[in-house]
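Weekly puzzle thread! Below is a chain. First person to post its structure in token form gets bragging rights.
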Amino acid sequence: MGKKGKKDAKAERLREAEILKKRLRDYGVSETPDNEYGGGYGSDCFVDDYFNGGAYNGYDDSCVPRRFPPLDIASWLRRIHIYAIGRIKWRWSNRSVEEEVGRAIGNLTKDEMESLKKEDRLTEAGKLHYVLSRPENRYLARRSCWALTHQGVETYILQPRDPADYGLLVDAICPPPPKSPPSKPPLRVVVGVRGPLTPPQACGGLRVHAVTFDRMFPFQLRHLVAPNGVSEAAAAELFDRIEQLTDNKGAKDRHRALNYLAVNHLPIYETFATGQMKNASLTGVEARPSRLSGDRRIVDVIFAYTDRGTTFVEKYIVRVDVTEEFPFLVSGLSRYVDH
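Winning reply:
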């Protein structure tokens, strides 16, 4: 490449950097560490931390430069807030962890096995949960991989920001007793920040985005709707429709808003159940940037119901602020008229 070609390539990179800077400003992120994220990091930090024998921590000070290079701005754009719903799956990170877990299970005493048998937990899943929950085995929980699955697909690798929250991950894989009615493990809601793609060596070949979470909690739909007299079957129909939206991994603003409403906002279920009683069907769910956004990122979520007899369409709107990590309600569910 001649001098002119090199100059053109450099100019192109600078133009790309300016575009990325503008996108960063749109995200509300400054060019210095003086923001809520505390600095930038790239995938090298993730790889180095794993190969140095530590568990991934996207906010390790050793991986935070005091000022990131202008052309490394793209790594900042991977810091996307997550509000995801799924189930937790345990994975071994490498062969040595797999063997160490097997050794710990093999060393269970006769009394411990009897205790598990009395609790109807003498299964592979029950023994795994018991071993990982023991205080002396917490190092295994830290060195394991914890995947969040959505619709049965492994979507993220989870890492708690606070090491004390490994207990939340261990609790999430506690199996129901074999004699209980067949059921899937409860859903978990994960709120955090998405990091880079994990290297194949980090989690037994699994290559997905890492998520450092600040909050994780179980969610059971019946606990939200049953005390308020809403049909659980009707609520489940609406919940499934929200969760099955194309590519709803809880990373885009519209999906974060929908997932927040799905686990927190009872009126959307009450309206859905009422619509069914009035012979109206849900014909549309739309989430779009609100005209009221201003300096905030507000999402308008609009539910459209069509009367099966008259074809009259009635719409309802609810607004959610998704500017920062934790979404919140701006205005509750109310009737909406197209302008």
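Puzzle host: Confirmed. Bonus trivia for everyone else. Confidence is low (pLDDT under 50) at residues 27-78.
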